[in-house]
What does this fold into?
Amino acid sequence: MISVHKSVAHPWQCDIMGHMTTRFYMAMFDDASYHFLHHLFGWNSAQSPDGRLGWVDVRHLINYEAEVDIGDLLDVRAELAKVGGKSMTISYEMINLSNGDVAARLEGVVVLFDLQERRAVTIPDNLRESAQAHVKADFV
It folds into this structure.
C-alpha cells in the first residue's frame, strides 16, 4: 500500500461522542482516491480536456476498525486490487498515526464514465496497462 492522503481529525469533524463522524471518513477516502488515480496513471481533470470522461464511484464497503479521536493524525493508504474492462477495485486503509491502529478499511469500485452520455465506458488500453502494473500480486 502507498500513502495517498494525510489528515488530522479536527474538532469540527467529530460528533457529540468525541470521535470522528462517518461523513469525514468518506471525505478523506474520497480525497485519497484522486491522489491514487494520479499515482496510477497521472489522472487529473486535464486528463480529459473535453470534460467528457471521469471516474465514478459505484460501490463502497467500509469497516470501521477503531475510533478516531480529536487531534489524531491519519494516513490513508491504497492499493489496486483489480482492473476490469470498465472498472477498478481499490483497497484503502486509514491508519491512525497517533497510535498505529487501523481506523478503517474501504474497498471501492470505480468505473470510467462518459459524463455526457451518462454511461460506463471501456478503460483504454494505455490506462489499463498502466494501472495493471500496480495490481498487488496477492490479488491476482
